[in-house]
Amino acid sequence: MSFTRRSALVAFVGLGFVASVPALALQISKFSAGALAEAQKAGKPVLVEITAPWCPTCKVQKPILDRLLSSDKFKSFVTLDMDFDSQKDDLKALKAQMQSTLIVFKGDKEVGRSAGDTNAATIEALLAKAL
Question: Is 0.85 surpassed by the pTM of this model?
Answer without folding.
Answer: no
